[in-house]
User: Fold this.
Amino acid sequence: MLTQRPGLKGRLVPENRHLWRARRPAARHRIVCFPHAGGGANAYASWARRLPEEVELAAVQLPGRQNRIAEKPATDVGRLVQAIIADLRPVLTGPFSFFGHSCGSMLAFEVARALQLQGGPRPARLFVSAQSAPEVIWNGPKLHDLPEREFHAAVLSLGGFDEEVSADQAVMDELVPVVLGDFQLWERHRITTVPRLESPVTALVGESDWRAPLDTVTGWSEYTSAPFTTRLFPGGHFYLNEDGNDVPGYVGETLLGS
Assistant:
């Protein structure tokens, strides 16, 4: 077991291949976050100081990014899910919930359902953020089928990149293939409605998100036998990064109030 150095207290740091955590020993709930296409665990670093003190942050790290940049990105959902479950075991104790953004929502759902099929434990709640219901993705046009230049433009239009990063062609040339690989993985993956997840599902939506507008997320209600709710925020696909949207606060309040 990794012992956290004193200087790292409260910071999101790696604990194993797939798990980063900002330890809070006195927390009474834990939120496990799954990153967007091309994103790494560090996408949630700011949540470590923005979540209520009673909620501990953990984040999933995927191959092909940040401290795992030398590894090839995942190409098999089933294997990825089982590897993540094995590495998440240290944080699947006590009350916990999952939060996934964009493609991370699909991964969070599949991990939650795999845990359920294995007899648990299962998350107290699943938050799916900026992600249309699986059948919408399966039946609709696929971003990964676009020509390279059009795919690049579509990814930039979603937001999520700092201006300095998006203006640096060399950096983008390294990032875009990882993003493309994630879109290929999830736009080709078929998620069935059965068995339904037994955890409540909350869909978070950006009001001006062209990729996942409100009417495309309500279908998530068919993937759970528990209550389904939606929450609308100002902004686009990366509404959670926009000023004034306290998404960690909302998540924390929801978890501690349930």
Observations:
- Confidence is low (pLDDT under 50) at residues 1-7.
- Residues 169-187 form the longest helix (19 residues).
